[in-house]
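Key result, reporting period 2: structure in, sequence out.
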C-alpha cells in the first residue's frame, strides 16, 4: 500500500498527472456519459464488445478506466493505479485498433483511421506517474505524510 501512494511535493508530477487527466477525461466522458458527441455508455460498450472484439467485462473495464482514471489523477488519489489502468488501455488501443494505421494521427483525413503517436505520449505520461507518484497537491501526498508521521516528525524522501 505504501508504494501505491508514496510521493513527494514534486511539481513535475503534478503537471504530468493533470495533463494526462485533462487529455483522457474527455474520451472517458464521451464513452461513459455521451458528452462531446460521444456514443454514451451503451454505444461505447456496443462498439468495444462488437466491432472491436473485446470480451464484455473488458469493454466495461475500458470505459470505467477511461472515465474514472482521470478523476483519480486529477485529485491525486491512487494516481499510480489510475495511470496503470490508462497505460493498459493505451496499449490495448494500439494493439487492437491503431497499429495497422501507422504512426501518425489522421490530420489530413486521408488515412483509414488514426495512428498511435498519441498513445505513445499518453503511455509515457503514465510511466512517469508510475515512477514519480502523484506529486504536489495530491491526496496521495496527504496520505504519505500521514503514514510517515512518527514521534520524531515526518520522514522525507
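The corresponding designed sequence is given below.
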Amino acid at each position: 500500500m505504501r508504494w501505491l501512494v508514496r510521493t513527494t511535493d514534486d511539481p513535475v508530477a503534478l503537471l504530468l498527472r493533470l495533463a494526462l487527466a485533462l487529455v483522457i477525461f474527455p474520451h472517458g466522458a464521451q464513452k461513459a456519459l455521451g458528452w462531446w458527441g460521444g456514443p454514451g455508455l451503451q454505444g461505447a460498450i456496443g462498439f468495444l464488445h462488437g466491432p472491436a472484439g473485446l470480451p464484455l467485462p473488458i469493454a466495461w473495464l475500458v470505459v470505467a478506466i477511461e472515465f474514472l482514471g482521470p478523476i483519480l489523477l486529477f485529485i491525486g488519489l491512487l494516481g499510480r493505479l489510475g495511470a496503470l489502468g490508462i497505460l493498459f488501455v493505451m496499449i490495448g488501443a494500439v494493439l487492437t485498433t491503431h497499429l495497422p494505421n501507422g504512426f501518425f494521427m489522421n490530420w489530413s483525413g486521408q488515412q483509414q483511421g488514426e495512428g498511435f503517436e498519441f498513445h505513445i505520449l499518453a503511455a509515457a505520461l503514465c510511466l512517469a506517474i508510475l515512477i514519480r507518484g502523484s506529486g504536489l497537491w495530491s491526496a496521495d501526498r496527504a496520505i504519505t505524510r500521514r503514514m510517515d508521521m512518527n514521534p520524531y516528525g515526518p520522514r522525507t524522501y
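Residues 92 and 120 are 12 Å apart (CA to CA). The chain has a mean pLDDT of 93. This case is discussed further under Risks and Mitigation.
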